[in-house]
Structure prediction request, 247 residues.
Amino acid sequence: MPSAHRYALYLAPTGPWRELGSRWLGRCADTGAALPPLPGQPEAARDWTAAPRHYGLHATLKPPFRLRAGATPRDVDAAARRLAAGDSAFGIQLECEPLRGFLAWRIASSDADGRARINALAAAAVRGLDDLRAAPGADELARRQAHALSPEQQAMLARWGYPYVFDTFTFHITLTGKLDGEALEQARAGIAAFADPLRGQPMPVPGVSVYVQPEAGADFIAARHYRFDGGHVDAAGAAYLEGPAAA
Prediction:
């Protein structure tokens, strides 16, 4: 099996958030299969969710990257195992809020402990897999820089290949693409009927996950879920983690 076009280290939602979020987006990240909409889900949600459906339901820890020369899929697997071995299970409180023009589940403002755990995990992921990352190409840099980045975000992009890491990182599970004000409020109301019953329940965070983009333009799929207790569960993209380790 050849290497995937890109790899990413994500947090895969669990429990009812996984079921709800996957149905809302219309695709299962573990299998790549299309899913039927939720009962009563607005028809417009199909358009609202086109962008996040491409990436699969997730929260970014280490953004998608191409392997540098000499790095292999097994190196990604080994790095993810090391990262998972350094943490333990915890929970986070979520609320549905806008972020940079799209709708997302974000850590509740009252959950300082959950935010601190997630921020530490994301920072460890960015550092722990960075040696495997190829530098972004000119086209990717230009696309990122078109979003009116702050000087700090520009610095993160130059050093880490992504503008939203460390001090500029905001945990989020993306539920829509960018929407205008009216559509954003419609989307927020549309998912509220399904998400409101989950308010106050902590979402378990039992581990981290590697997602892959098999080839340029393809949808992302989950490859392997790494539990903090040492176990793992394979998903549709597991074969993209095979191959010899770098010498």
The CA atoms of residues 176 and 245 lie 37 Å apart. The longest strand covers residues 59-65. Strands lie at 6-11, 59-65, 90-92, 94-99, 102-107, 173-174, 203-205, 207-213, 221-227, 232-234. The chain has eight helices and ten strands.
